[in-house]
Specification:
- The structure is a single chain.
- By secondary structure, the chain is mainly alpha-helical.
- It has one domain.
- It has four helices and no strands.
Length: 154
């Protein structure tokens, strides 16, 4: 709200000063063109901010989808990868099917953590800007999003 009002006040102030200094018709037309030019620049700045905010919103939605996919994958592999093997006393059993399993599961968990950190960073930034008087109208923030912790994922 504040940025829009600030731009409007600046444009009105510039227009008033330029029209007050205008002596001839040529000066008035220049003042009008300058005021319209500043209004266009202000509108472009506002639309760029809205576009960046919406782009970050889309990125957050994509990150949520990836987090859900990683959550499902890690939960599935954790359940399927743990198997009890009965062997004869003194016999050794090696299962090559789950070779490097723990390393892959740990890698997926780290990637999940990185995605959660990315999402939480975007969300915290949007919350800070949404609560700010200057940017509150320009930030796209859905109501159903919340901070994610690794505990809440599993």
């Amino acid at each position: 709200m504040g940025l829009v009002i600030l731009f409007i006040l600046i444009i009105i102030t510039i227009g008033i000063f330029q029209f007050a200094k205008a002596v001839s018709d040529h000066d008035r037309s220049n003042a009008c063109a300058n005021t319209i030019g500043f209004a266009i620049v202000g509108a472009v700045i506002i639309f760029v901010i809205i576009g960046v905010s919406y782009g970050n919103y889309i990125r957050m939605v994509k990150t949520l989808v990836v987090i859900e996919q990683y959550k499902t994958t890690i939960t599935y592999y954790s359940k399927k990868g743990v198997a009890e093997f009965k062997t004869l006393p003194g016999a050794e059993f090696t299962d090559l099917k789950y070779n490097n399993y723990q390393q892959q599961l740990g890698e997926m968990t780290r990637e999940l953590r990185d995605k959660i950190v990315e999402y939480n960073g975007l969300y915290a930034g949007k919350l800070a800007l949404k609560g700010n008087w200057v940017f509150s109208w320009l930030i796209t923030l859905p109501d159903n999003f919340k901070l994610i912790t690794m505990e809440s994922v599993f």
